């Protein structure tokens, strides 16, 4: 490891003065990264403007890697062209490495060839930068290093045969030609801001020196800094303190007319801290950002380290289009694309598509295909579908065109260039990138996407024919590897990683995260190169000593990089104490308060503080108009659900049954409610045929099997039109067998009953209580034929746990059966004779009737009210009193709903809210104490479930 400081030194202010002489001075400045080139260029421009100039020659400042490429390009357009290899793009290089890895003996044992190839590329670049190759083949290593040596040998052979090179070897490619006049060399080359020069860089600079270029080492101006060390309780407190400090310094500079003001924030582990830092800085520096009615503000800070192209919404939409065209995909992919603005009609049909997405969730399988998706969309928007969603003609048209394109264009094997053209065609088919004008970031993302697809097309030079799935995977990887940061206006606050901070100067600098375990950076040698070899070469990542040496130098650089320097470190992470880094331990600790920072409020706190409270009583909605209280036809979960919801929470009933609010259904193959529907349909079919216990008793085993089989087929067919995917092929057969087993087991329970005959099955009735009329569907009513007792029994099938205690007391949890008992039973012809109510619990291994009757033994498992263990059972002393109680509660609930009673008042607090999907609408979680109660409720409910 060496430093550029072996060359004559030139300070920044002197360098800027020399650059002002223009091209005639022949100075070229190379920097370790693009950011430092930009910062130096900006400092030069500011200096020229300060001299009163309106125009000046652009200085020659560029990253070292760009300088190498410029020399290579010079060579390509000269007589040297025939001697230079083809320079591979990153995606071409990756493709060759993948071919090498996949074709090797060890390749077949790898989980991911692409990841191994990426690691190999990194090891290859490291080995060249540190000139490790001579020793690599002879050095004794482990299995990994031997495998890499083999891959590297093959890679070298392939690229040599085809006269190719990648950027890692450019110094060796250009070095031998530096004497040629075809390569434009500067008179003076200034290596600016290099904390470290790799041996390969040193070799190249020395070769330039031999070619007559004068070499200098550029160093920042030293600032007499005030340095302070701050300890924060945790990392998030550091983020917040740094954000407050940055805003305070900006405001001070503005007041003192000292703009522009350069503020640097350096974070050693920026990749993992990025999101927390972004949030803290946004909250402090642009607190109202994203609020309704506010224009999108340009943030005054910029976080370096690009994000993978694949993570940008526009690029993600393109990948989803390829997914849909390719074959089977997750429903979530289709759902995302449906709601994307980056396809045709994405804006004009956005509301209808959101509704369609919600509808599709109810009946799409977790995995689907384009064809099945199109059929599901057609089903869910068909005029004859009673629960149809609004149609989305542009979406339907786009998907249909995509299906045709996929069928015609995506079969067989092709060269990458041909696949690139086909992919662009697919994007166009679906109207990508949408109908609205793109903003600046989206536009730059689109450009980058096109660049990446063009790079992929250039794979023609190094890769053969492939299938569409392989092409798609390779492009997806290229989009994942391509770190991308859209260009933005110059902003005063730069948030950087350690390497990018090299050579940078600021007015104020804050370096955070300097705990012992993070600084100096812990060693992390490349696993493919023998560690001893890396140590011997002085690779900083390979040894604690080399890392300490480099990080000590970087720390010294920070201390002189600004007029004010703050170094901070967190004291704890979770329960762990974090000692301070030994590199800053000697600096006296300063209390955060001594920085004199104002306590900036978050937007939420400011809103709360400024609030002029106006009390609005919102517990009552407008009453339903008289005569207009029939909501049963409009309810989605069955007409009687309005009583259950009103009992559970008046707001829930109001939101669902009057506002039409509904949570999104989870996407599942065959959900619990589908299975419940199947069991209801199965038993309805069976009893429509049997009609009585006597027929059941008389039926032969064979006829019973036939009856059950036919009923299972009918039940499945009735659901199949809605859930064809979930009940297709073998799945349908398995479901049929499950239903048959359940029916057999259940009919054994029915055989134990005293004689009965069926009085009604699945009968629809309008039922009114308290002025509210709902359309109810009665599962079943039996006439009991016992000569002494007689009467009617109202039954309700349940495939989950069923407890008759849920009918009792105030605001009953399950008021459906009481509703049938005292409402529908009258209309169904049982004027005074309902003598039993029962849940028919049809659960595998737990088949039984559970209910309450006017007398004992009417149905096995149905007991009189005095035998009920629920506390609310004590409210009733007889069957008649029970029916009267039902009537009273139902009248109350109906009246409440009709009157507009809509209080947010869950009957059992957090336990009632646990499975309710309306939290965002009722904002119950904003109520004081709700969160803790919810936790307790969940714990209690979990304990109960486990019990
Ligand atoms: S979450 Fe709770 S309070 Fe809100 S509507 Fe549902 S049951 Fe009522």
Indicate the structural class: alpha/beta
Could you tell me the radius of gyration in angstroms? Answer: 37 Å
Query: What is the overall pLDDT average?
Result: 89
Strand order of the largest sheet: 8-19-18-9-17-10
CATH architecture of the largest domain: Alpha-Beta Complex
What is the count of structural domains?
6
The helix content is 40-55%
What small-molecule ligands were found?
iron/sulfur cluster
Quote the CATH topology of the largest domain.
Answer: Lambda Exonuclease, Chain A
The CATH class of the largest domain turns out to be: Alpha Beta
User: Low-confidence spans: pLDDT under 50, at least 5 residues?
Assistant: 632-638, 938-947
Q: Specify the number of helices.
A: 33
**Main beta-sheet annotation:** 6 strands, parallel
Q: What's the end-to-end separation, in Å?
A: 65 Å
Q: What is the 3D shape?
A: elongated
Strand count: 27
The percent range for strand residues is 5-15%
């Amino acid at each position: 490891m060496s430093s550029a400081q072996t060359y004559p030194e030139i300070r920044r202010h002197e360098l800027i003065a020399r650059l002002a002489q223009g091209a005639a001075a022949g100075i070229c400045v190379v920097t370790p990264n693009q950011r430092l080139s930009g910062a130096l260029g900006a400092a030069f421009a500011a200096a020229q403007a300060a001299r009163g100039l309106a125009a000046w020659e652009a200085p020659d400042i560029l990253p070292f890697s760009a300088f190498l490429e410029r020399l290579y390009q010079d060579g390509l357009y000269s007589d040297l062209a025939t001697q230079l290899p083809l320079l591979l793009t990153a995606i071409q290089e990756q493709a060759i490495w993948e071919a090498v890895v996949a074709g090797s003996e060890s390749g077949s044992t790898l989980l991911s060839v692409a990841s191994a190839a990426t690691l190999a590329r990194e090891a290859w670049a490291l080995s060249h930068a540190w000139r490790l190759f001579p020793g690599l083949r002879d050095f004794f290593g482990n299995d990994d290093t031997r495998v890499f040596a083999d891959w590297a040998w093959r890679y070298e052979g392939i690229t040599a045969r085809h006269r190719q090179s990648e950027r890692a070897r450019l110094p060796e490619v250009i070095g031998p030609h530096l004497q040629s006049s075809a390569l434009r060399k500067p008179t003076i080359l200034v290596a600016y801001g290099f904390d470290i020069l790799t041996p390969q860089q040193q070799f190249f600079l020395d070769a330039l020196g031999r070619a007559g270029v004068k070499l200098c080492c550029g160093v920042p101006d030293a600032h007499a800094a005030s340095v302070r060390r701050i300890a924060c309780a945790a990392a998030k407190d550091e983020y917040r303190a740094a954000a407050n400090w940055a805003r305070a310094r900006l405001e001070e500079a503005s007041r003192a007319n000292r703009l522009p003001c350069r503020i640097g924030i350096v974070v050693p582990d920026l990749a993992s801290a990025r999101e927390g830092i972004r949030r803290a800085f946004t909250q402090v520096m642009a607190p109202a950002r994203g609020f309704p009615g506010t224009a999108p503000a340009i943030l005054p800070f910029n976080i370096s380290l690009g994000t993978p192209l694949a993570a940008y919404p526009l690029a993600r939409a393109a990948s989803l289009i390829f997914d849909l065209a390719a074959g089977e995909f997750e429903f979530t992919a289709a759902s995302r694309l449906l709601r994307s603005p980056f396809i045709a009609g994405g804006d004009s049909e956005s509301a209808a598509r959101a509704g369609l997405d919600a509808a599709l969730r109810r009946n799409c399988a977790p995995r689907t295909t384009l064809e099945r998706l199109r059929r599901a969309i057609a089903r869910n928007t068909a005029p004859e579908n009673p629960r149809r969603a609004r149609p989305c003609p542009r979406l339907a048209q786009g998907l249909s065109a995509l299906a045709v394109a996929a069928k015609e264009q995506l079969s067989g094997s092709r060269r990458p260039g041909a696949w690139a053209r086909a992919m662009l065609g697919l994007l166009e088919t679906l109207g990508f990138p949408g109908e609205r004008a793109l903003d600046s970031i989206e536009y730059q993302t689109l450009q980058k996407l096109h660049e990446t697809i063009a790079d992929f097309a250039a794979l023609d030079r190094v890769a053969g024919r492939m299938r569409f799935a392989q092409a798609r995977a390779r492009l997806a990887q290229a989009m994942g590897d391509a770190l991308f940061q859209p260009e933005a206006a110059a902003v005063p606050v730069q948030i950087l990683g350690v390497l990018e901070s090299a050579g940078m100067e600021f007015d104020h600098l804050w370096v955070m995260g300097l705990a012992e375990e993070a600084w100096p950076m812990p060693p992390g040698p490349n696993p493919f190169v023998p560690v001893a070899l890396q140590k011997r070469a002085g690779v900083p990542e390979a040894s604690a000593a080399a890392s300490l040496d480099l990080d000590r130098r970087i720390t010294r650089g920070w201390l002189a990089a600004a007029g004010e320097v703050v170094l901070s470190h967190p004291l704890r992470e979770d329960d762990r104490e974090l000692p301070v880094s030994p590199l800053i331990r000697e600096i006296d600790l300063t209390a955060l308060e001594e920085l004199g920072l104002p306590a900036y409020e978050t937007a939420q706190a400011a809103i709360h503080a400024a609030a002029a409270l106006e009390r609005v009583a919102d517990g009552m909605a407008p009453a339903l108009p008289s005569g207009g209280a029939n909501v049963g036809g409009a309810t989605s979960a069955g007409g009687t659900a309005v009583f259950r919801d009103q009992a559970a929470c008046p707001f829930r009933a109001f939101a669902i049954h009057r506002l039409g609010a509904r949570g999104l259904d989870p996407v599942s193959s065959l959900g619990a409610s589908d299975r419940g529907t199947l069991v209801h349909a199965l038993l309805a079919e069976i009893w429509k045929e049997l009609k009585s216990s006597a027929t059941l008793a008389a039926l032969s085993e064979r006829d019973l099997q036939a009856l059950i089989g036919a009923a299972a087929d009918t039940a499945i067919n009735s659901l199949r039109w809605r859930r064809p995917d979930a009940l297709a092929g073998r799945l349908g057969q398995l479901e049929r067998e499950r239903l048959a087993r359940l029916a057999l087991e259940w009919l054994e329970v029915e055989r134990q009953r005293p004689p009965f005959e069926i009085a009604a099955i699945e009968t629809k009735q309008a039922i009114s209580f308290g002025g509210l009329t709902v359309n109810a569907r009665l599962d079943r009513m039996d006439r009991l034929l016992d000569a002494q007792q007689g009467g009617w029994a109202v039954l309700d099938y349940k495939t989950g746990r069923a407890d008759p205690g849920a009918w009792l007391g105030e605001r009953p949890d399950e008021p459906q059966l009481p509703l049938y008992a005292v409402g529908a039973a009258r209309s169904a012809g049982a004027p005074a004779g309902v003598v039993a109510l029962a849940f028919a619990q049809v659960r595998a291994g737990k088949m039984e009737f559970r209910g309450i009757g006017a007398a004992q033994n009417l149905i096995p498992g149905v007991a009189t009210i005095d035998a009920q263990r629920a506390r609310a059972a004590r409210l009733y002393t007889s069957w008649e009193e029970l029916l009267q109680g039902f009537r009273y509660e139902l009248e109350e609930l109906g009246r409440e709903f009709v009157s507009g009673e809509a209080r947010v008042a869950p009957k059992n607090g957090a336990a009632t809210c646990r499975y309710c999907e309306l939290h965002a609408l009722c904002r119950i979680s904003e109520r004081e104490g709700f969160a803790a109660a919810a936790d307790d409720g969940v714990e209690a409910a979990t304990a109960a479930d486990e019990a």
